[in-house]
């Protein structure tokens, strides 16, 4: 098949998608635009400089405000070769949605061909055009354009330049109740803040905005991932782990989302360790996670057994990986957990041990540090022991029967309360047949009538008493 035939078939498919956009504008139905955008995924592999020039010439008229901008980008001979064949001219005027759609196809091609500088230029011009036209029928296209707009500027290390424009667009989308664009822009802003470690600004943005409930799962997964990272930095590990679990559940389950799944699981493992829990071993055996989670498996094993030497060795060996994953700061916080676990293991193994031996086993710098750490562990209830400061040793108390304490009673109380609440909620949710409701309403009427009769009898008795006094 020649390049001319490729362009001919591509033009036919693009015109079919354009008809869907025109139908969407005419009927004010967004589902037709959704179909057109989904169909564009199959066109992505067939895009080239020559076919795109043919599409621009066959679809966009000379009066189109974006025609010359797209052609100027495609004629950049520094990065790609251009066919010198003349363009076919389209005389029909196009709606703005068609102009943006053709530019969107050009953005896809520029992104796939790594022409990032040209992509940044075209996406910036396209965002200005979208904000100038200001049409609600362009909401779905605008969400796609904003995504690649941020992506191109991220690749070219100019991410800080676009933040004011994204904030303005997010305010506009919120006022319009444009859920799809609002979800995309909110995620882009959170990613922008996190990229520059501006976690306070990101937290303020989350507190001042509301993520749309109708957003697609892919955007919801991103949002929960960013929330989990923000709360982990702010030491709210329980809420962070809950959000990360939501991100894992909502993320698409396909090979293309493997990178996102790996990033979420890496952060979730560290946060779960910080909460005092140990991740399941089966998690590290997943095929798409096994290789990327090898360093995190070593960290988990060190935390589980309280081996500070192994923890330090793993941290030093994989420091570049942890920094690239942006989990290094959180992993440093695990050192205290490793020490607490090591002290707990020592207290179970020895009834009496000197602070010097504790210092050697935990690889601490001095006996004073060991004494301070053991004292804090005793105060926090990690171990049940006493310290003899004069002799310099720690003595573990004898194991007390756990059933003589209130812990089993408290655990049983929580379980019984849960079962009772579940039973009450189930009873409240029951639906009764109409006939039974009718009988119940009849009984209510009978009771009301008996109450009225009793009231009348009481009034009669009071009247009799009054008469007797006279």
How would you portray this structure in words?
A hairpin with a 4-residue loop joins strand 2 (385-388) and strand 3. Mean pLDDT is 79; it is low at 77-85, 434-438 and 460-470. Among the domains are: 1-73 and 93-158, no CATH class; 350-400, Arc Repressor Mutant, subunit A (Orthogonal Bundle), CATH 1.10.10. The relative contact order is 0.04. The chain is an all-alpha fold. It is built from 22 helices and three strands. A three-stranded antiparallel sheet has the order 1-3-2.
Compact overview of the structure:
By secondary structure, this protein is mainly α. Helices cover 70% and strands 2% of the residues.
N-to-C series of helices and strands:
HHHHHHHHHHHHHHHHHHEHHEEHH
The first-to-last residue Cα distance is: 119 Å
Mean pLDDT: 79
Number of helices: 22
Largest beta sheet: what is the strand line-up? 1-3-2
**Largest β-sheet summary:** 3 strands, antiparallel
The Rg value, from CA coordinates, equals 34 Å
Return residue spans where pLDDT drops below 50 for at least 5 consecutive residues: 77-85, 434-438, 460-470
- Helix fraction, binned, reads 55-70%
**What does the overall shape look like?**
flat
The total of beta strands comes to 3
Strand content: under 5%
Structural class assignment: mainly alpha
Pfam families: PCI (PF01399), Rpn3_C (PF08375), TPR_PSMD3_N (PF25573)
Domain PCI: 221-401
Keywords: Proteasome
GO molecular function, one term: enzyme regulator activity
């Amino acid at each position: 098949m020649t390049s001319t035939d490729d362009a001919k078939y591509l033009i036919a498919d693009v015109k079919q998608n354009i008809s869907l956009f025109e139908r969407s504008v005419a009927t004010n139905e967004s589902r037709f635009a959704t179909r057109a955008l989904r169909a564009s995924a199959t066109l992505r592999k067939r895009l080239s400089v020559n076919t795109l020039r043919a599409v621009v010439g066959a679809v966009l008229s000379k009066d189109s405000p974006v025609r010359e901008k797209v052609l100027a980008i495609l004629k950049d001979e520094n990065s790609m070769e251009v066919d010198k064949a003349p363009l076919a001219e389209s005389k029909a005027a196009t709606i703005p949605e068609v102009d943006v759609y053709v530019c969107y196809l050009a953005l896809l091609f520029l992104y796939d061909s790594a022409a990032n500088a040209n992509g940044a230029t075209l996406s910036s011009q396209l965002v200005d055009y979208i904000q100038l036209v200001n049409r609600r029928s362009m909401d779905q296209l605008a969400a796609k354009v904003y995504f690649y707009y941020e992506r191109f500027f991220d690749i070219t290390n100019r991410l800080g330049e676009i933040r004011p424009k994204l904030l303005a667009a997010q305010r506009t989308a919120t006022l319009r109740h444009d859920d799809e664009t609002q979800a995309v822009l909110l995620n882009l802003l959170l990613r922008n803040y996190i990229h520059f470690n501006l976690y306070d600004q990101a937290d303020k943005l989350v507190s001042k905005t509301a993520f749309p409930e109708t957003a697609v799962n892919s955007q919801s997964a991103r949002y929960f991932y960013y929330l989990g990272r923000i709360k982990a930095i702010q030491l709210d590990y329980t809420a962070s782990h809950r959000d990360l679990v939501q991100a894992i559940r909502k993320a698409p389950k396909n090979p293309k989302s493997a990178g996102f799944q790996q990033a979420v699981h890496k952060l979730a493992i560290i946060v779960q360790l910080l909460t005092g829990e140990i991740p399941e071993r089966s998690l590290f055996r997943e095929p798409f996670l096994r290789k990327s989670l090898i360093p995190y498996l070593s960290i988990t094993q060190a935390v589980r057994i309280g081996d500070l030497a192994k923890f330090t060795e793993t941290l030093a060996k994989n420091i570049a990986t942890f920094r690239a994953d942006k989990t290094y700061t959180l992993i440093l916080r695990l050192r205290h957990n490793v020490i607490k676990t090591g002290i707990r293991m020592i207290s179970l193994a020895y009834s009496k041990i000197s602070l010097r031996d504790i210092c050697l086993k935990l690889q601490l710098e001095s006996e004073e540090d060991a004494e301070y750490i053991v004292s804090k562990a005793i105060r926090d209830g990690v171990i049940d022991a006493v310290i003899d400061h004069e002799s310099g040793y720690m003595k573990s108390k004898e194991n007390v029967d756990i059933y003589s304490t209130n812990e089993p009673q408290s655990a049983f109380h929580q379980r019984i309360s849960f079962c009772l609440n579940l039973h009450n909620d189930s009873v409240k949710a029951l639906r009764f047949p109409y006939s039974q409701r009718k009988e119940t309403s009849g009984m209510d009427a009978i009771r009301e009538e008996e109450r009225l009769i009793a009231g009348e009898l009481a009034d009669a008795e009071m009247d009799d008493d009054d008469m007797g006094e006279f």
